[in-house]
Amino acid sequence: MEKKLRQDPINIVKVVLFGPESTGKTTLSKQLARYYNTVWAPEFARDYLQKKWNNERKTCEAEDLIEIAFGQIKLENKLAKKADKVLICDTDLLETKVYSEEYYGGFVDENLDKAAKKNQYDLYLLTYIDTPWEEDDLRDRPGLRLEMFTAFENALKKHNRNYILLKGDKETRLKNATKAIDKIIADKENLSSFSDSLLI
């Protein structure tokens, strides 16, 4: 089980979009992937939970979270091999851990908890709640946006994660995100590139 939650070793810059639902994470993930001409790892939970809702008319349950975590890491590891120096992740296991704690009275699967703490990323982009709420089948806490945001920021602080807070319109967020990512890229050597692997 532990192996299914472990990141494959690869020398790339990993950036996580982190924060409550409906705060522009997916939009910015796509923008950043275009900017860096690389790939982005979508949120596995969205497809998983949408199918569950469509087929069973059921929302997320505590036991779904470990399956979501497996799917997320599998997706991340697969796409990391196709990345060009930078992988943009629309979420990570720490985000799944925060949701588990907030929705299920502090409960977190032991394996998920361990992996969320162990897996490493270069930068977290914490998205603020100054974006309009967009309703869908899965989103359910429009009245608790600030409380959820605080839970996410507290998790980053508690686990000493490198993060910046992103506020403002799409252009401002993109500008501030790329500025921070560019600094990390400049400090790293011999980053893996999918285009390089094609030449071997």
Automatic annotation (TrEMBL):
InterPro entries: NAD_biosynth-regulator, NadR/Ttd14_AAA_dom, P-loop_NTPase. Residues 14-173 form the NadR/Ttd14 AAA domain. The keyword Transcription regulation does not apply. GO terms for molecular function: nucleotidyltransferase activity. Keywords: Nucleotidyltransferase, Transferase. The keyword RNA-binding does not apply. This is Nicotinate-nucleotide adenylyltransferase. It comes from Polaribacter filamentus.
